[in-house]
Design a protein that fits this description.
alpha+beta, 3 helices, about 25% strand, binds nickel (II) ion
Length: about 140
């Protein structure tokens, strides 16, 4: 199995705030991410596709096509947006890096067959800061 990855970038604003809790509790749990008037992050998104190379191309996935897909389906919908209020697929969800990674997986897993015959989505890696990142490997299957 070969793993092929593409990195894209976006920046977006959010806050982490649970309206059921007091302001003090939100500040205790979320720290600066609970700031009432929003704040931004420079996100790095790494999408990894796995498979055996297509005999016709030698590619698992054409990285130009993967880049275009990520930019069209993800970056154009979140870049320079407020994740809490501007992004339909995050409506009603906590705007955490974990939840973003899950939503990105769901979007890209559905679209990937349009650009590769052999590649399957392997992981979404999402950096919120250079030191904080999450990885998602898809829903658990039995
Ligand atoms: Ni934050």
């Amino acid at each position: 199995m070969v793993h092929v990855s593409r990195k894209e970038h976006f920046n977006a604003a959010h806050k982490l705030y649970n309206p059921v809790w007091s302001r003090e509790k939100n500040e205790e749990v979320f720290g600066p991410c609970a700031n009432e008037n929003w704040h931004g992050h420079n996100f790095e998104l790494i999408v990894t596709v796995k498979g055996l190379p297509d005999p016709d191309t030698g590619f698992v996935v054409d990285l130009k096509k993967l880049s275009r897909l990520i930019r069209q389906e993800i970056c154009e919908k979140v870049d320079h947006r407020n994740l809490n209020v501007d992004v339909p697929f995050m409506a009603g969800k906590m705007a955490s890096t974990e939840n973003l990674a899950i939503e990105f997986w769901n979007i890209l897993a559905a679209k990937l067959p349009s650009i590769t015959r052999v590649g399957k989505l392997h992981s979404i890696k999402l950096y919120e800061t250079p030191r904080n990142f999450v990885e998602y490997f898809g829903p658990q299957t039995a």
